[in-house]
Amino acid sequence: MPARKDIDGSVSIPAFYGKELRWKREAAGLTLQATVKGSFYAVSYLSEIERGQRLMPLRLACHVDQLLKTDGYFERCCKDVQKARKGAHAGYFTEIAQLEGNAKEIESWNPLLIPGPLQLEPYIRTVIRASDPLATEELIAARVSARRERSWIHEDPKSPESWIVLHESILRQPILGHDEMAEQLAHIVDVAQQRRFITQILPCNAGAHPFMMGATWLFTFDDAPPLMYSEGMYSGQTVDDPGLVKDYAKAYGRLRATALSPEASLKMIGQAAEEYGNGKRPR
């Protein structure tokens, strides 16, 4: 058996946190399997936390503190570790950006904007300037780069399975000029045709429907319980309560049933791109 690789706690705060977790666990004489027992998380999940490759969810931190009798240490450190991983993303989105890469399936509802991983640079810049008009060019460039790095979520063959529901108003109420809007919508069609995700359009005349609020994501994992994330302009909220997540999942099913079929939706996006390309606003 190959020798276990040591953790270099000087690399980052998450690595330091993970190294401390491993030390406390081993000092208590517990294996990874014994530590996650009763937590609903997999051994691989905890192992990645110890190596500084994954953030510790609050629910798991509380479980570890109780098991290892660490007096709330890991719970208290959770937010500090999350802040350390902030980078170019908004603080409340840091954990979500990481969860995207670990998810088995992602289901999302986007009532006002094209999802971040599908946004091209002109669209990203427009959204950033609208929400943060005083942002420097350096900050905008960093955020553009960070968002474009997430494009793999819908473009890489190894990306999670994704289902995206968009509101029709995103197509009818452009935030870019006609040429740029045409390019942006054509990009969505191109990526969708590569079978990386399935998209549906909720028509403007659909009437009352679930999720008449901000953007929402539902994440499913192989090694952790599912969770829901909703986002407003300057904040985001994560829900991991099993009962509530189940309710949101059922509501998302009803939303998909209300939307147009994937075939009709993709055709609508393509037609809108073509009309913008011809200098016309889609009817």
TrEMBL record:
Which InterPro entries does the entry mention?
Cro/C1-type_HTH, DUF5753
* CDD domains hit by this protein: HTH_XRE (cd00093)
Question: Entry's Pfam families?
Answer: DUF5753 (PF19054)
Q: Which residues form the DUF5753 domain?
A: 94-270
**Stated name of the protein:** XRE family transcriptional regulator
Recorded source organism is Streptomyces kasugaensis
